[in-house]
Design brief:
The structure is a homodimer. By secondary structure, chain A is of the alpha/beta class. Chain A has eleven helices and 17 strands. In chain A, β1, α1 and β2 form a beta-alpha-beta unit. In chain A, α3 packs across α6. The radius of gyration of chain A is 21 Å and the shape is globular. The first copy, chain A, starts with a strand and ends in a 5-residue tail after the last helix. Chains A and B meet through β13, β15, β16, β17 and α11 of A and β13, β15, β16, β17 and α11 of B.
Chain lengths: 358, 358
């Protein structure tokens, strides 16, 4: 039986992609590109080609159980881990690690967000395979770092060290999202990679790291050892998970550990974090407009991204650099450069008009 | 039995209000303001309060028979005159006049578009009543002229003469839509009124005018005298109507006749010809945005008009002076100043994507 496992984290709400991404149907469940497969489904497909189906787990919110079952009918219900509350990535990963360890004490695990875009699946598979092999023989925490092709200010960066091991580079430091000037310096230096949020490790390596850097989380889940993969697991989780600190794996573990390595990759990756990110990687027409799915006629208009249901038609005139997004009775028109405010717009809508449109 | 009749012309397609106004459901059939009554229904209601229901006729296109029956259930089917083809207003009015003359040889007729907005119904009724009385005793062609409140360039103007008759002013000339400079001169002079397209006359006055200025149309319909209000009428019309010249009543008769009078009125009128006209007369919020029916949140946005179905929400940021209109799977965003091109956009859509969106 394969010792390779996968954990897909799919509990987010994707509020920066409102109004396409909604509380009841967030980004990871959407067929962004009209291909017939949602981001979650595409993520699953990628892993399902290299990891046994029964070794793939989804961690998500209780709200989304039906959506996950509908979109991933190959998964058994016990492969869906339902967080009772949102607690960021560290508690999520700790639980999944203990759950998997109870199935396979020597498991190698790749952890991935559900809602990223990857263009080159073959190269992606190759990187994951190599990584799983590397972590099976070394007590390391491996992350995939994307070779940057422009000075992106929306991503965190990873600085690499000179030290290498079997071709994998030691991580010197993780950095927060830089401003444009700093991002340019990072990219030119050749020492920095984008932090993809995709991790690979042996289950014992990550649990040791939790023990060292997040003892509170570690103790809490360690206490549940006798419950994982039993009928009592959810009772234990519902009691203990909400009590965990709300902390990311990056901040809680990766930035503190000294055995972190990075594999520099270039498989056409985007975290699809914003409309602008989607614009950047989408095919543009002669006027640099991007139309996702819908039919469009544009006059005196440039550099816009337009997203409406596929049976819709959009005619724009005299618009430059806008996001035009319509879904489920909500239309948003907003300058691309103001896209970070979309979350706030959605909050204002909630305050003024209630949950219906969120 | 009342000798007063009404002809409502409702066969247009309202293409300047695309995408709200569609070939299958043009402007006159829309509930523009969310009041529960369409423009046609409101027009009917206004006349129905002063003219017997059985004396009200609608001339429309065969395409819209079901819509008219649905929206005006008080009308009998023989009160709906179906044009086999669009031939502008002169042939339409000639037919309706002959049709009515066969019912009442001394009929007084008010002719009105179906899709205008009138705010002060009491004053409107009063004007119509006075006009019907005036034309019943005088061989004149009366038109209602709106006292202009701004130098509108979207309307034709009527210049008045010094000559008066019972308080009605003789018309000196009809003018085409002026440019802004000329419109300003018109308004300041006090000699000009907006041409409303609402006419009042005795049936014999208008038929005499047709005989004099449009002998071709006159002869054609005169030949049908024995068919009006018989089972053979539509056979005669289907044969003869399409052969009529495509000509407006203004150009074909009113501009040529010497017995044209105008009644200067101010009952809050708009021909609702364009989004801009609708914007001008609608209530604005603090940022001078107009929202028809839908819920809206606007940031850094001014002087826009927003129209979507009433259960929709629109969030705009950074837009000035735009039309934002969405209906039936079509979204249009266009600068208000470019609204005259909306017809062309709709034509382009037809060429590129077929009839579905038109």
């Amino acid at each position: 039986m394969s010792k390779n496992f996968c954990v897909i984290m799919g509990g987010g709400v994707g509020s920066r992609f409102w109004p396409m991404s909604r509380t009841k149907l967030p980004k990871q469940f959407l067929d962004f590109f009209g291909t017939g497969r949602s981001l979650l489904q595409m993520t699953f497909d990628r892993f399902n080609s290299i990891i046994p189906t029964e070794n793939i787990f989804i961690v998500t919110n209780q709200l989304y159980l039906d959506l996950v079952k509908e979109q991933l009918p190959l998964l058994k219900e016990n492969q869906i881990l339902l967080e009772p509350q949102r607690r960021n990535t560290a508690p999520c990963i700790a639980w999944a690690s203990y759950h998997i360890k109870s199935l396979e004490p020597e498991a190698n695990i790749v952890v991935s967000p559900a809602d990223h875009l990857i263009l080159n699946n073959a190269e992606f598979s190759d990187s994951i395979r190599k990584g799983l092999d590397f972590v099976s023989r070394n007590n390391v925490l491996l992350t995939l770092g994307i070779k940057p092709n422009h000075p992106e200010t929306g991503y965190g960066y990873i600085q690499i060290d000179d030290e290498q091991k079997e071709g994998f580079m030691k991580v010197k430091t993780f950095t927060e999202k830089p401003n444009l000037e700093l991002a340019k310096v990072f990219v030119e230096s050749g020492e920095f990679l984008w932090n993809s949020g995709i991790f690979i490790w042996n289950v014992n390596s990550i649990l040791n790291a939790f023990k060292e850097f997040q003892p509170e989380i570690h103790t809490r889940f360690e206490n549940g050892k006798s419950y994982y993969n039993t009928s009592s697991e959810m009772t234990f989780i519902n009691e203990n998970f909400p009590a965990c600190p709300n902390i990311s794996i990056d901040f809680g573990v990766m930035e503190k550990a000294s055995n972190v390595f990075v594999h520099g990759v270039a498989f056409g990756w985007s975290d699809l974090g914003t409309w602008g990110a989607l614009y950047d990687l989408s095919e543009k027409d002669a006027d640099n407009n991007v139309s996702l799915k819908c039919k469009t006629l544009a006059y005196e208009s440039h550099n816009n991204i337009i997203s409406t249901p596929s049976n819709h038609l959009v005619v724009i005139q005299g618009l430059e650099n806008y996001v035009i997004a319509e879904d489920n009775n909500v239309l948003l028109i907003c300058k691309k450069e103001e896209e970070q405010r979309i979350r706030n717009f959605a909050t204002d809508v909630k305050v003024n008009y209630g949950d219906e449109f969120i």
